Amino acid sequence: VQTWINRGEIPPSVEMTAAFIELIIRDEQFGHHHSHKELRLMYAMAIVRFVNGLVDREQKGKFAKSIQVLARSMGLPTWFVDLRHASTHERLPSLIVLRDGAMQAVAWLHDHYWVRNLKSTEQKQMLQHNPEIKVKLNQYKDCRKTFIKEKYNDPTPYVTCIQSLVELMNDDVIHQEIIPLLLGVGGLVPTSKKKRASAEHMQISKGLIELWTPLIQGLDDGFPDFGQQLVSCMIDKLDAKDDFEINQVLLNPYAAFATKDGAEDVTKAPSYLLTL
């Protein structure tokens, strides 16, 4: 888990699990090196961050909801909220209570995060071929184009498509379905090369921006890490080994005759990379 953390951004539940496990192991093996109060403070901090990290992600809308309400909505026992409140505003709970709280927090993360996300290979393969996501993305695209063509008449159809996608979203769906489809040809990058950016005209068309902006904003509002994950995957597409391919084809006028745009992997084509 620590290696995963060092590689970059990770889901908050993974970081919380690592923090609790590290603390529990340190307490068991080296607890005698810390004072009673130090251990209570460490456990209290871990529990406060655990509760805050979970409920803050659920805080949506114009009006803030209480932590108790948010905790109940996500199946988090209110006992954790009470323990967080005591650790923050009152006298620190006893070490026995805090240790028990840490163990129960790990159990809750196991049941509500790890079990749900550590799917078998077969399940992941089923997700990769789930047609519903692609259908809804195509529906959004059609509805949004109609909205623009009819001079901004009724946004309800494409907004409904966005809401339907948000309801289906989780970490697996984002990484295995939505982002690959958006970064595929026909997604954010048009199928027609005439609509893509070029060396002579590096700007993306206004129509392309107008088409996809509501979807990206809507998905990011519904799943706050989405935008960051999308940008990260876009950067991975534009890694260093693609620089030579872009420069060779675009800057050398004769290279274009030797290298066909998108001959094998269409996502390595210069027009695709420039548009992305």
From TrEMBL:
InterPro entries: Las1. GO terms for cellular component: Las1 complex; preribosome, large subunit precursor. GO terms for biological process: maturation of 5.8S rRNA; maturation of LSU-rRNA. GO terms for molecular function: endonuclease activity. This is rRNA-processing protein las1. It comes from Rhizopus stolonifer. The lineage of its organism: Eukaryota, Fungi, Fungi incertae sedis, Mucoromycota, Mucoromycotina.
